[in-house]
Amino acid sequence: MIDSVKGYVRSVGSLGTVPGLMSLALWFSSLGALWLDHSFPEFSNNKAFSYFYTDYDTAKSVLSTVASASITTLGLVYSLVLVVFTTAAGNIGPRLLQRFTGDATNQFTAGLFGGTFLFSLTVLHQTDESFVPSFSIACTFLLAGLSVLQLIYFVHTASINVTVDEEVAEISTQLEIDIDALVYQEAVDQYNQEVPERNNTGSVVCAEKSGYVANLKIENLVQLGRDNNDFLTFLHGQGEFILKGQKLVRFNSVLSDEQLSEVSDTVHNSVRVSHSRSPDSDVEFSINLLIEIALRALSPGINDTYTAVTCVDRISSALASPVKNGLRDHVRADDDGVPRLLVPGLTLEDLINTAFHPLRRASSNNVLMTKHIVDALGRLLEIAESDAREILIGHLDLVLKGSKAANLLKVDTEFLAARTDKIMRSS
Asked: Is 195 strand, coil or helix?
């Protein structure tokens, strides 16, 4: 039930739900402020609020001005957000729009202006010649002041949001956190028994709907394996697209129809399937997002090699931890150390191939970009474990072969070959 609510909120869009809820909260708070003014006139006439006490005509004018300015500025805020969306989609990448709709500054700004409009409008409606609510007017002034400060901050952040280097840094920071979490989880996963061989004839649970695997409740699946004294294999990685009726989880044993019906409910409640893919804890999606930005930057229409270089540098930073510590499929055990679940994920080779194959192919004619790819592979090679070294050396070799096949000038191929040779000797 909770996952369904979360899925609905995501489908509506954070830029709609959060400002809406915030506006309603401020609107209802105006009723509380007016109640205080009605119920405790002496509180409203307190010296602290005497500076806001005014006659009916002035109060009406002030409240009308705040209300009209708030709703006008709210329109301006959404217009600026749409401009940022359009600019980001055209120059950086359309999939960044998910990040902007979830931006807390955009949400808070829209909610504050919407709430200020409803607050001041409600106070204005209740103000007449016999009742001028000083406390409510003081709250209106406070909201107006906060709105001005928030507008200044919003314009500042909006200008940053269209700066590609800042966006690349934000994406790569989250990517590093997600990859480090995978590496850490692999390090703490301990089991004291041999992992069972996967039985391809065991019972399977199929998907109820088509979509992307968005989230797994690992603990529930491990407990399911323990309750049935079985070993489960989740057949798809996070972010992978699955079809309704496609095999989702396989048990090592063969279950009866009654048992299969019982475990199917637990499996379906433990796997959230989303209609769209998001960067939340989806490592491959974030890597592809950085690659998309780099490929757009390398296209003839944009021709911004240094943005692509920044993406390569950030990708190498994100890959540092798995290159140094390794990354393999995850076997999860119960509290007794008995293996209960296999969750397939991106292995180290998958990560490196996903990141560098498309970049290498797109930059074979670009000496500057190729040089930075070689440097990035060299940085990773310096800290790599034995398994990773072979993979990285293979990619260095592919980069050199690609530059030769691109018919670059002899001096360029010699430069790249010399740089690669230096890296190999120093590592």
From this structure: coil
